[in-house]
Design a protein that fits this description.
The longest helix has 28 residues. The protein is built from 16 helices and 16 strands. It has a five-stranded mixed β-barrel with strand order 5-6-7-9-8. Strands 1, 2, 3 and 4 form a four-stranded mixed beta sheet that branches. Strands 13-14-15-16 form a four-stranded mixed beta sheet.
């Protein structure tokens, strides 16, 4: 039997490791047995005639070796064979051909064997730790976790969970307005887990799944399955639209998600750095779904091309800016939510829609900062600018007279009809 004090130290080490790394005792016992066998096999070329018994409750380990009795002159391998003379010192009744089992003191194998055992154990434990971490977080993909900021780098943030495991939140997975300090607790979803060399747990706060999980936490009806989130469109930190559906006619899905006086949705908005969230009723009726997606704008008419997945939307003059939204976010999210490319047209007095062109389409001819200045005035299309007085453009967009004339000329030239061209040129 190996010295109990030495074996006890080994077992205590494993018990500590189990508490820290959450690895079950049976697995640790198996690792200990495999480690002993690995070292024995390296020393003697085989471990088939050895039995390793680990008792973690008693804190000891027994190694038993079985050898075949051979005549003294036939002894060739002392590891697998025992001479008749030596066997009879153990028991005088032993004869050639019988098996002798005896306990082995592992410490007598020498210092090198003990060092090899420790190295083997360390290697196997490290592998166990990696596998355990990978398996645990692989099952948590898509779930929200909370972790503490440990170190902040330029391209990512290193966080530690409750057990001290390292998690990464890349800059690309952070909301643009996110700002964290060391020691602060961060909530995010487990986006994916890489396991090339070491488990690498990647978190995300920009994923649509993060928004969905937040709603599941805040809205009991969603967690209970009474309300389902059918679709999500999101521009992280700016704005989002979600389409919800209720399986109970008595439940208003939009009202349930928003809560009384916005109580439920306010917590989500704060978590997402004041991201504006629109909640709409989902429907399989494409026409109605597009109309709802463009909320708060009220659509006058709608023409849908299902094959091309395009929709031409006609609105009154005062609804166009609502449909497009600030910096074009509303129409962009509506397109993302419905899966249709949406083109907006202003409705004429005779109900004939006229074509218009978004300012973003003129970025090759007009400087970006000029377009952004015009959009900041709420002017998102060419004709919206052409209908605005020179004085307002000069004053509110901070432009020179020559710049305004050049811009108006570029925008007006987009309309082929000469009468239309002259109509919008400001004299």
């Amino acid at each position: 039997m190996a010295k109990k004090t030495e074996m006890l130290t080994l077992i205590e080490t494993f018990q500590e490791f189990k508490e820290l790394k959450n690895i079950d005792r049976m697995t640790l016992v198996s690792v200990l047995e495999e480690s002993f066998r690995s070292v024995i096999s390296k020393m003697f070329g085989t471990d088939e005639n050895y039995s390793v018994i680990v008792n973690p409750d008693k804190g000891d380990c027994e190694i038993q070796r079985t050898r075949v009795v051979v005549a003294d002159a036939d002894l060739e391998d002392e590891n697998t064979q025992i001479s008749l003379t030596e066997a009879q010192t153990i028991d005088a009744d032993f004869e050639v051909g019988e098996e002798v089992s005896e306990f082995v003191d592992f410490s007598k194998f020498g210092r090198r064997a003990i060092l090899n055992l420790r190295q083997t154990l360390a290697s196997k434990i490290l592998e166990l730790e990696k596998d355990s971490l990978y398996n645990r977080y692989s099952e948590m993909v898509g779930k929200i976790v909370a972790a503490e900021v440990y170190q902040i780098w330029k391209k990512e943030i290193l966080l530690l969970d409750e057990e001290g495991n390292e998690l990464l939140l890349p800059k690309t997975e952070q909301i643009p307005s996110d700002f964290f300090r060391k020691g602060e607790t961060v909530r995010a979803i487990v986006d994916h887990v890489d396991n090339v060399n070491n488990p690498k747990i990647i978190l995300s706060r920009t994923s649509n799944s993060f928004l969905q999980r937040l709603f599941e936490q805040e809205v009991p009806e969603i967690a209970d399955g009474l309300i389902t989130i059918q679709k999500i469109a999101r521009i992280p930190g700016e704005r989002a639209k979600i389409a919800v559906e209720s399986y109970d006619d008595r439940i208003d899905p939009v009202g349930a998600c928003v809560g009384v006086k916005g109580a439920r949705i306010h917590g989500i908005v704060r978590e997402l750095r004041n991201e504006n969230i629109d909640v709409i009723n989902y429907t399989t009726n494409t026409d109605l779904f597009i109309r709802r997606a463009l909320s708060p704008a009220k659509v006058s008419d709608l023409k849908i091309d299902d094959e091309a997945h395009r929709a031409d939307v006609y609105l009154k003059q005062d609804q166009v800016s609502l449909a497009i939204g600030k910096n074009g976010l509303n129409i962009k999210l509506a397109s993302m939510l419905t899966g249709y490319t949406i083109d907006v047209y202003r409705e004429l007095e005779d109900n004939v829609a006229e074509e218009d062109v978004y300012l973003d389409d003129f970025r090759d001819d007009i400087d970006d900062w000029v377009i952004e200045a015009l959009q900041a005035m709420g002017l998102d299309t060419a004709k919206a600018v052409l209908r605005t007085s020179r004085e307002d453009l000069i004053a509110k967009a901070d432009l020179e007279v020559e710049q305004v004339d050049d811009i108006l000329s570029i925008l007006a030239s987009e309309f082929a009809d000469e009468a239309e061209f002259q109509k919008f040129i400001k004299k």
